[in-house]
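Protocol step 4 of 5: obtain the predicted structure for the target chain.
Materials: sequence only (see below). No template structures provided, no constraints applied. The aim of this step is simply to have a reference model before the mutagenesis design in step 5. Sequence pasted as it appears in the construct record:
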Amino acid sequence: MKKTILIVDDSESLRQVVNIALSGAGFQVLEARDGVEGLAKLDGSKVHLIISDVNMPNMNGIDFVKQVKTLPKYKFTPIIMLTTETQEYLMEESRKAGAKAWMVKPFKPDQMLQAVSKILSC
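Step 4 output (structure tokens):
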């Protein structure tokens, strides 16, 4: 069975790049434009990993992570923050909210696949 990954990012081109890399590696990919849409995609079906941007309209990534962690079915779903932000306080805030990892854009698809494999293998 394919593992499902949800990408939450307001950049369509970034979602496409991530989707192509993950689909090519055999994952099923869901996409959302922001935290509000991301939460709507968490409808009870199994999601193995979430990749989220920090800066998005409607609901930013850190608020999204906090919301996800209140949902019993997704409380333990690992979340990678994928962002242009490099500020230490934002990394700390996302860690406190429940994010597992932090990747800075631009990224190489194979770097991301390594991070995804590492998180999903444990």
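Step 4 remarks: The mean pLDDT is 95. The longest strand covers residues 4-8.
Proceed to step 5.
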